[in-house]
């Protein structure tokens, strides 16, 4: 697709065809495109857990099961995804990178960072994977993990202590789906979120 078309068609898809696996060459392409994301200091403090086998996907959903969360509806449709990519960030990779001579933050003081770039950069990579899926005529949705289940997910898949999952992409050929009711909110007007030159309030001259 043309890039403009990819952006126009991009949305979070929550229902997939469980009988159509994503071909291995597309899985590889999606992941490799994610690795083209920018990262502060070229730290590349990310890793991605790619789950295609049914047993691994079942293990993911079992590990993320939240007793207080929804048991059906959109989550039941989400579980039909034949591909799950868990995005994990590594803060220590950034603290170590910026302690090197060309950066000079040898104290590894986390307060020097105005925002957690390890999470931001991993999110950039996940977005590139999401857009690649759209370009390949696949559906995709980025979801967060229940906060109380993060350790369970790490234990289930043997994730090293320094890595923290920031979310997961479900990917597959589109199946039965429903648009999120949140979309009824509509897009905020450009003038209310974009400020040229200085911050102005609506109606301010």
From TrEMBL:
Residues 7-173 form the Nitroreductase domain. InterPro entries: Nitroreductase (IPR029479), Nitroreductase-like (IPR000415). It comes from the Bacteria. Pfam families: Nitroreductase (PF00881). The keyword Oxidoreductase applies. The keyword Nucleotide-binding does not apply. Keywords: Oxidoreductase. Belongs to the nitroreductase family. This is Nitroreductase domain-containing protein. It comes from Actinoplanes campanulatus.
């Amino acid at each position: 697709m043309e890039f403009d078309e990819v952006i126009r068609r991009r949305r979070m898809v929550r229902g997939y065809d469980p009988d159509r696996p994503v071909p291995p060459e597309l899985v590889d392409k999606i992941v490799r495109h994610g690795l083209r994301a920018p990262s502060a200091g070229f730290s590349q403090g990310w890793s991605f857990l790619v789950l295609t086998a049914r047993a691994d996907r079942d293990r993911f959903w079992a590990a993320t099961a939240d007793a207080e969360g929804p048991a059906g509806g959109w989550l039941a449709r989400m579980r039909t995804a034949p591909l799950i990519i868990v995005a994990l960030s590594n803060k220590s990779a950034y603290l170590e990178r910026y302690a090197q001579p060309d950066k000079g933050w040898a104290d590894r003081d986390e307060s020097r960072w105005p925002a957690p770039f390890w999470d931001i950069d991993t999110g950039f990579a996940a977005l590139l994977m999401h857009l690649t899926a759209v370009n390949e005529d696949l559906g995709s949705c980025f979801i967060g993990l229940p906060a109380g289940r993060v350790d369970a997910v790490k234990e289930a898949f043997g994730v090293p202590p320094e890595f923290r999952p920031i979310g997961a992409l479900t990917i597959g050929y589109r199946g039965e789906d429903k648009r999120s009711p949140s979309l009824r909110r509509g897009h905020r007007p450009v003038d209310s979120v974009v400020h040229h030159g200085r911050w102005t309030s609506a109606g301010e001259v």
